[in-house]
Amino acid sequence: MNDDGFTAERLFNQGYSYTYDDIIFLPGYIDFPVDGVNLSTKLSRNISLSIPCVASPMDTVTETSMAVAMAALGGIGMVHYNNTISQQASIIRAAKSHKIPFSADLIFATPSDSIHSADEFANSPCIFVTESGNKQSKLLGHVSKSDWKNLSNKEARISAYMNTSPVTLPSSYDFNDVAGYMASKKLDFVALVNEEEENGEVVNLVTSADTERIKGLPKLGLPSLGEDGKFLVGAAVGTRESDKERLEHLVKEGINAVVIDSSQGNSLYQINMIKHVKHTYPHLDVIGGNVVTNYQAENLIKQGVDGLRVGMGSGSICTTQEVCAVGRGQATAVYKVSSIAEQHGIPVIADGGISNSGHIVKALSLGASTVMMGSFLAGSNEAPGTYEYKNGLRVKKYRGMGSLEAMTKGSDARYLGDTAKLKIAQGVVGSVADKGSILKFIPYTMQAVKQGFQDLGASSLQSAHHLLKSGKLRLEVRTGAAQVEGGVHGLVGYEKRYF
Ligand SMILES: NC(=O)C1=CN([C@@H]2O[C@H](COP(=O)(O)OP(=O)(O)OC[C@H]3O[C@@H](n4cnc5c(N)ncnc54)[C@H](O)[C@@H]3O)[C@@H](O)[C@H]2O)C=CC1
Ligand SMILES: O=c1[nH]c(=O)c2[nH+]cn([C@@H]3O[C@H](COP(=O)(O)O)[C@@H](O)[C@H]3O)c2[nH]1
Ligand SMILES: [K+]
Fold first, then answer.
1. Spatial separation of the C-alpha atoms in residues 164 and 424, rounded to whole Å
2. Distance (Å) from CA 105 to ligand 2 centroid
3. Nearest to residue 63, comparing CAs of 44, 48, 83?
4. With contact defined as beta carbons under 8 Å apart, do 365 and 458 qualify?
5. Alpha carbon 265 to chain centroid distance?
6. How far apart (Å, rounded) are the C-alpha atoms in residues 261 and 250?
7. Binding of NAD(+): at which residues (predicted)?
8. Whole-number Cα distances in Å, 443 to 101, 186, 438, 481
């Protein structure tokens, strides 16, 4: 009989709001190797993923590159809605047209243009020539940077010297198809065109440097693909009348799930929106939230949500608990909501507060099926925005969607028709350190999560949830001193490297 530690049920019913760092699991029994751990899971009732990772619908986290890379890794990205309907739709369209987990900056010109400086190529190995000089018209040829450098008359019009038979491949080719073709033909670069469109629009450019870089990264798992063979992409919408029109456009672009975005999801507005979505698009998975209590969760489950997003005030940029005095410690919130959702077969997304692989292990072992991350992903190459330097550190901007800056930017698009109102911030604007590509650090993070699962004696999410429910999973609260002991301590200096 195991009477060591507490069961989750006992620990989380004492009137404390615990967060991930407050608790620690006692180890279980290992009878399988690390690579025997399977992290496949469900985002929502009808959507399966091979890794439990979701990119948050925030304007400094998820646009095309993030959505593509997350799906390529086996997770999913939720495209934010702090933009116009057409901008959000075009981010989704672009993500859906990719089969390769990176996107290049594409440069276009018309045949009658001249190229005066190498700067016009920016970082691209070529400039594409189309009838109208933009992406949307027919591809006529290209000028490679090396051909342009050898040109004696730099004033010449592009039509006089462009290559009129550029090598293109369908954008439906996957990474191995493209890399294999490039290697066999010894190509420096190749354009990927969308063959579903009449004009064969160029959607991506792959260079041999890209293929070499990808080959050097950890092997990708099973990508998240829909029935149409395209990457799974989700999107967020609000609960205003105008969000119904927004959703109509997003559905046309083929989104696979919709997140109804709110800090407090148990509202008449959200319930009306869920009813609308369920009635109008019965095959679209709806993720409701955010919720942190049984009462909130039950109300949304009654309306037929296919997934629940859990977390209020736990995010790194959140000030909701300070400003509004509502919310819940994230470990308690995830455990409480998951135990109700599980009875209805509804997967839970643990949203916010993830800053290391241990937090992911905790969220999943407390009943969540996926984790949603903002700050953990915002410093990556795939997040929107460019890097800048702050105190010698390479950083990217990261801001709360309830920050004044984000609300002001989105107010035209999101709060259209609102009468003048006083804006109160529930988030901050900040920056996060450069982390490189998620194609590299997410596979390492998942390996760390697998090690945590192995220590617990859980070979899958299902088995972790079984340990939780059966009371075999034992945990304790860490005192302040235990938390200090659990971290690095007593050293004069050290370097923290995770992989
Ligand atoms: N997870 C978290 O802890 C938090 C997240 N956030 C994020 O910040 C952003 C903004 O969040 P919220 O302010 O909660 O957004 P929200 O859209 O739920 O609410 C904004 C305001 O509009 C009102 N409203 C919504 N629909 C309405 C309708 N149809 N008619 C009239 N009034 C309506 C709400 O009552 C509220 O006052 C979201 O992206 C959210 O995810 C903000 C705070 C906390
Ligand atoms: O109180 C808040 N004010 C905000 O401005 C805000 N913006 C985002 N979010 C929520 O935080 C989550 C991301 O949290 P992390 O950076 O910790 O991953 C996100 O996924 C959201 O749930 C906000 N919460
Ligand atoms: K917070």
1. 56
2. 29
3. 83
4. yes
5. 21
6. 15
7. 261-263, 311-313
8. 14, 30, 8, 32
Residue positions annotated with a catalytic role: 318, 414
Q: Quick one: pLDDT band at residue 416, thresholds 50, 70, 90?
A: very low
Which residue minimizes the CA distance to atom 1 of ligand 2?
318
pTM of structure = 0.92
381 prior amide bond cis, ω within 30: no
How large is the ipTM?
0.97
Closest CA to 409 of 385, 432, 387, 433: 385
Amino acid at 119: D
The answer on whether 263 is annotated among ligand-binding residues is: yes
Q: Order the strands of the 126-130 sheet from edge to edge.
A: 108-109, 126-130, 139-144
Q: Which of 317, 330, 357, 407, when mutated, tests ligand 2's pocket best, judged by the most ligand atoms within 8 Å of its CB?
A: 317
Closest CA to 233 of 82, 76, 378, 45: 76
Rounded distance between C-alpha atoms, residue 386 and residue 441, angstroms: 19
**Is the pLDDT reported for residue 412 higher than 70?**
no
Q: What is the pLDDT of residues 181-197, one digit of tens each?
A: 999 999 999 999 887 77
How much distance in Å is there from the Cα of 429 to the middle of ligand 3?
Answer: 13
